Amino acid sequence: MKKRILYVAMLSFVYVTVNAQVFNPADNHSTLKERKQQKILSLLKKGYATSYKTKHTTESKIDSITFEIQVDGEWQLSSVVNFSYSEENPQETSSMKIFYDGNWTPIQKNELYVNSENRIDSTLDYEYFEGEYVLTGYEKFFYDSEQRLDSVHNYGFYADDDFYDEYYVFTHSSADSILFTYNYNGLEFGAAVTETGQGYLINRDSNLYQFFENNIGTKSRAIYFDYSFDELVNPANDITMYVSFEYAEWSNDDYIPVEKSTFVYNEDVTQLVSGKDQMFMNGSWEDITDYIFNYNNNLLSVVETTEYDGDDLYKSRQLISYKNITSNDQELKLTGYKLSQNYPNPFNPNTIIKYSIPVSSNVSIEIYNMLGQKMSTILNEFKKEGPHEIKFDASSLPSGVYMYRLKADAFVETKLMTLIK
Known about the structure:
There is one protein chain. By secondary structure, the protein is mainly beta. It has two helices and 25 strands. Helix 1 packs across helix 2 (29-45). The radius of gyration is 22 Å and the shape is globular.
């Protein structure tokens, strides 16, 4: 089953925070993608809303998250996620690699794009396959004139030719009440799947309530405590955030609890102390996972988890390191390379793509569809330093969302454009 719950931003961050396990690179790549995606979607379906939020309001940002598992009482490396930042889009990039058989192997990369209002514009998800990163999914956010979330388009692959294509459309009936509809089309194990649903969200008493019902009979309620709808689309947050929630499903004319997560803060509500995941079984709550949070110089440095599976315990931990980002940091300096948003956008059938390079070099611009297939190369030649532009004629292409990718020396940047005929 695919996710049947409100879209939660930063899918890949959800994945890396809760799924720090060892993968075997010798596995079939399609199986690996499927296993990863199913894990993410099952967590979202259950209401899990944890994500890493970098410290945009301070000089400290997350540099890396190293994952370890405990085997026979000793901690062993599992995987690591490295973060990089820029004043230009993508403003944040994360890349994950796993430690297997004494070697590090890349596995995925994610890019975060932010609009002029400092809200999430889009995210691109890549899988590492046969020596390069291959685009496997994207999430695009659309806003109304008041910068309220209007809709979300989520598209990507599961495995082989299987894909998902889903939309959320939001109607802001009041300041604290939001209606939404859900449409899903996909190919799962070679079979076409379609689903529709509707629900609403309410900001009430500093909590976010979500009610949802679909056309196959699922009806659910999720409560996100000390959380608001606006935080879903705002990439800036003061602390690394875990969200307490409770998830219930409708049965026998009532909402029956299924599971919940509870996180405890210190007295001044500045630092997480502990947390717990629980499932409601046989009339009572049973512990599934315990969390312990430790800090270094007031920054979250270690998240240790204990998962319960009958009489077995599975222990893992996340080691978080930070780096100071200042206006003089080389990583945040403008590089001189720039790929602008095409104009007009949407377009039919012609649009202009502008770019600039700081040194003379060979430049290529390639057009891809959302299946990751290259449709054309509109530029591949040596260009002098400075600003340039090129006209793209898409008269031979059908309507849809496309990517255009600029490559110049080691610089690579990708943006989305929409063709409407």
